[in-house]
Design a protein that fits this description.
This protein is mainly alpha-helical and 128 residues long. It is built from four helices and no strands.
């Protein structure tokens, strides 16, 4: 089992990745959709930071890393990511931020990228 310092460092790095996802993913999408970005940030940043003590506590108590460990996990994550991408494309189409052709292109590109990443993730990690 890893020491608490190692677990603390690993979970801090994962939390930084989630904060990067908020900065480069959630906030730009909120801006495009016309939402008040400052209000979204007031919810998104504390939520991302709150994940850190929760995952640290789970990891120190159980020793279980919260990560994808099987091909099924990769494929389920890919399905969820595609459903979110499809939802975002439809939402942007309905709000008038994109045209029909742009929405179809966005769906096709996101499907391709998600499938390639899920396939590579499942293959390269030599999982069950």
């Amino acid at each position: 089992m890893s020491s608490k310092k190692t677990i603390l460092l690993e979970e801090a790095i994962r939390t930084m990745a989630i904060i990067g996802l908020v900065i480069f993913g959630v906030l730009p999408i909120a801006y495009v959709l016309g939402a008040d970005v400052s209000r979204v940030a007031l919810i998104a940043f504390p939520s991302a930071i709150l994940i850190f003590p929760i995952t640290f506590w789970i990891r120190t108590r159980t020793g279980v890393k919260l990560q994808l460990r099987s091909r099924r996990g990769w494929y389920i994550s890919a399905a969820i990511a595609f459903a979110l991408a499809l939802f975002m494309a439809i939402l942007m189409l309905l709000t008038g931020y994109t045209s029909w052709n742009q929405a179809v292109a966005q769906i096709a590109i996101s499907a391709f990228v998600i499938v390639v990443l899920a396939w590579l993730g499942a293959r390269l990690m030599r999982l069950k």
